[in-house]
Amino acid sequence: MSDEVVPNARPTTGTSGPPTLATAVQSSPSAGAADRSRLAELTAPVPETIGDGGPELVQLLTPEGERVESPDPRYVADLDLPALQNLYRDLVLIRRVDTEATALQRQGELGIWASLLGQEAAQVGSGRALRLQDHAFPTYREHGVAWCRGVDPLQLLGLFRGVNHGGWDPEEHHFHLYTIVIGAQTLHAVGYAMGVQRDGAVGTGDPDRDAAVIAYFGDGATSQGDVSEAFVFAAVTNAPVVFFCQNNQWAISEPSERQSRIPLYQRARGFGFPGVRVDGNDVLAVHAVTQAALDAARNGQGPTLIEAYTYRMGAHTTSDDPTRYRISAELEIWKHRDPIARLKAYLSHGDAARGFGQVGREFFEALEAEGDELAASVRERCLTLPDPDPLTMFDFAYAEPHPLLEAERAEFAAYHESFAGGQPR
User: Fold this and answer.
1) What's the whole-model pTM score?
2) Catalytic residue at 325?
3) I need a labelling partner for 242 at 20 to 30 A (CA). Which of 166, 286, 287, 410 fits?
4) Is 95 a catalytic residue?
5) Which of 312, 337, 342, 346 is catalytic?
6) How many CB atoms lie within 10 A of CB 88?
């Protein structure tokens, strides 16, 4: 008996719609044990496990802070001690900003906040792999990448406070505005990368000219059509773009096991470009893998999909309650994989093989004090952000004057003038 489903089987009488795998097997007189076994295998619920990323995971720093070597020679973390300390500083300070922003939202000073807690290494490791001329297209959670691109955290808070639409200049920082529409930024990134390609800024051999684009998105976005379309365009045009998926295990309340039957990085194969899974809580591995993918893109080798296997330690946003859909045991396991704790352990132990000894507690204490100062500054400046003039929303809608816009501006202005002391006249 063949273990293949009978191709010409039809559903039984009374079944509407096209034949499915289940109806084909159930209605076929020749379907035997092998067919039913195959059907059970394909339709069985995916087990919800708390995995470690599997053997394909690229890792250079274990959760215990021990340095290991990658079997792939492309992924080498050739960073000296000052660079490692700078990475640790980035991780600590952006987590401090994130903690303060969450507190501000809870106190009614921000409308909402999307926390990056637990994903710092994925963002900082990739963000620091970018060159000045590279461009990043974020979602709404890439606070660590924004930090690496020189965006003032106050600009992020202003967006969530509702006093700006993203107050930074994308051209100045080569970091584009936050995108709320899930997956849309992947198309923007591919389009920009195609432009870079047509401008001749790929494969010239000039490290100061050749550029790449990186698009950030989450595991949930991989189920969106925009992402698949971006993969198609990137592949067929060989665009210099890196797709960076932060698989934090949860698309709001939907686990990644309910979104895909294969590891997400393997989806790249179907579109014709390479994919790799990296330990998203290992800042060294993320930096090395992203650096290799960006180099390939700049050299004209086309796109790469990176799946940073990480975890969302907090809620999806401050309007979410994750205790309603995930178990506490899962959270406890991932606490032991904390990206900051593992790098601190590595620095504290030292690495004689790589020429540096133990980093003293003075470094960590000074950084903690710097974090406190940063948090106080962010809080004070956030609370003093001025409310914008409502009419400014019309200022940059069009490059040139537009009669419909001017009529709407006049109507809106008249409406506001009808109020005095907060009460209609």
Assistant:
1) 0.85
2) yes
3) 166
4) no
5) 312
6) 22
